[in-house]
Amino acid sequence: MARIAGVNIPTQKRVPIALTYIHGIGHTQANKICEKVGIPTERRVNDLTEDEVVRIREVIDNEYTVEGDLRRVHAMQIKRLMDLGCYRGLRHRKGLPVRGQMTQTNARTRKGPAKAIAGKKKR
């Protein structure tokens, strides 16, 4: 089992697909990494040599921000917005949608499960 950037990547999958299991690497970047290292995209992870795994690991460490570092950067950006008190920061603080979506009927993912309103009678 190959371990890259602190993530155990699946051994039975093709290399570009397996690299997408790392937070911060999508399909496009995974294909670019394979091209840069010189690994054919049809190759499976369990067919990689130790040298190829080391080269992939070096490319990712040197050129990409992934996993914990990337999560930390995103958290700091959101915290900065909340500290500024700007509109987006207030929406983050209240747990409401940030990008202009309507909230009267939808937005249950951000707002959580519906709460009953006391004293409202059905007719």
Report on this model:
This protein is mostly helical. The protein has 2 domains: 2-67, Orthogonal Bundle (Helicase, Ruva Protein, domain 3); 68-111, Irregular (30s ribosomal protein s13, domain 2), CATH 4.10.910.10. It contains 6 helices and 2 strands, in the order ββαααααα. It has helices at 15-19, 27-37, 50-63, 67-84, 87-94, 108-111; strands spanning 2-4, 7-9. A two-stranded antiparallel sheet has the order 1-2. Strand 1 and strand 2 (7-9) form a beta hairpin. Helix 2 packs across helix 3 (50-63) and helix 4 (67-84) crosses helix 5 (87-94). The longest helix has 18 residues, at 67-84. The termini are far apart.
How many domains make up the coordinates?
2
Low-pLDDT sequence parts = none
Radius of gyration: 22 Å
| CATH structural fold name of the largest domain | Helicase, Ruva Protein, domain 3
**Care to count the β-strands?**
2
Rounded to the nearest angstrom, the distance between the terminal CA atoms is 62 Å
> In percent terms, what proportion of residues is strand?
under 5%
CATH architecture of the largest domain: Orthogonal Bundle
| Spatial sequence of strands, sheet with the most strands | 1-2
What is the chain-wise order of helices and strands? EEHHHHHH
Large-scale geometry: elongated
On the 0-100 scale, what is the average pLDDT?
A: 91
Largest sheet: 2 strands, antiparallel
Could you say which structural class the secondary elements and strand pairing correspond to? Answer: mainly alpha
CATH class division of the largest domain: Mainly Alpha
Number of helices in the DSSP assignment: 6
User: How helix-rich are the residues, as a percent range?
Assistant: 40-55%
Pfam family, one: Ribosomal_S13
GO molecular function: rRNA binding; structural constituent of ribosome; tRNA binding
InterPro entries: Rbsml_uS13_C (IPR027437), Ribosomal_uS13 (IPR001892), Ribosomal_uS13-like_H2TH (IPR010979), Ribosomal_uS13_bac-type (IPR019980), Ribosomal_uS13_CS (IPR018269)
Subunit structure: Part of the 30S ribosomal subunit. Forms a loose heterodimer with protein S19. Forms two bridges to the 50S subunit in the 70S ribosome.
